[in-house]
Amino acid sequence: MSVVSVKEGYSSVRYSGSGSSEKTLTRVFSAVVDDATDTPLTLAADSNIPQAGDTYPSDASFRAGVPDISKISPYFYNVTVTYGTSEIDFPTGGDNPLSEPASIDWDDAESVEPVDKDADGEALVNAVDEPFDPAPTHPFNDAVLIIQRNQAAFYAGDKYIFGGSVCSHTFWGAPAGTALMKSIRAHYERGSINYWKVTYRIQFRLDRPAGVNPSQTWYHRLLNQGYRYYDDDGQLLIAKDDAGDPVSQPILLDADGKKLAAGATPVWLLRPKYRVAAWWPLGIDSGDLS
User: Fold this and answer.
1) Are 215 and 240 a contacting pair, CB within 8 Å?
2) What pLDDT is stored for residue 290 in this prediction?
3) CA torsion, points 50, 51, 57, 59, in degrees to nearest 10?
């Protein structure tokens, strides 16, 4: 996940202004990245792209504003940098919002969801080993991380790529599969320097049912039951009651879709609920913000 090349279009250098009016110079770059999940933030941090406040190569009286970065295809970007004359009151140092550290807050989120096992990992069944219907519920108390950061650029596609996704790798020390991107909000701030104020809200689910590995933390848990089953010959049959009529209630099935043996533990199916994505391009892991 890096920038492969940055090339300046020399015919794209433009100049405007005359006399005592503000003068500007504009440079345009084309850039290529090696990962379609990269975002404008990848370009904004690259040393080959002029940063806000940098001087123009051949005239130090011109200083760069915030780069305007546009994603034109999964791997290609256009970057426009406008330089203004030194008389512009350009924020530097502590006055530059882009130099401010990210704001980190922790919150809680509580939800009540059905469970099939108790605190000791034992199946929640009645006296004849049948699961309860409806299933018992359990309150989950999740930690919520809120990161607010000022960014030179924001790619709206991030909301679709990362929003509502589960992190595929370790994030803030939590195992892969346990962090869920609940929302990404961005607000454009205009002033002597323009920038994006972006807020990431991440929910961690560490309290998961016994026997569920971290990568399956946010999966659907569905009781394996139905109105049909496979017999020992692999034929799909309609489940019938003792009178030979189709059952009015679903029967329990084992992992192979056969009738669950009497006294056997009910089988729960795990199915993905959210997309999985690598969050490296966002640069919001604990090590990125330190």
Assistant:
1) no
2) 60
3) 140
HSE toward the beta carbon, residue 25, CA cutoff 13 A: 19
Beta strand 76-85 with 59-64 is: antiparallel
State the Cα–Cα distance between residues 43 and 47, nearest whole angstrom. 9
What residue ranges in 95-223 does DSSP mark as E strands? Answer: 103-114, 137-151, 165-167, 179-189, 195-204, 220-223
Per-residue pLDDT tens digits for 264-286:
888 888 899 999 999 988 889 98
List the structure tokens of 262.
């009497």
Residues 172, 285: contact at Cβ < 8 Å? yes
How far CA 131 is from CA of 99, 117, 210, 230, in Å, comes to 56, 10, 16, 21
The amino acid at residue 169 is H
Identify the pLDDT of residue 90.
46
Model's pTM, two decimal places? 0.64
Alpha helical stretches, state H, the chain:
40-44, 158-161, 286-289
**Could you give the C-alpha distances from 178 to 32, 182, 227, in angstroms and in order?**
32, 12, 34
Q: What is the pLDDT of residue 19?
A: 53
228, 232, 235, 240: CA torsion to nearest 10: -30
**pLDDT tens readout for residues 16-44:** 655 545 678 888 889 998 888 777 777 77
Average pLDDT taken over every residue of the chain: 84
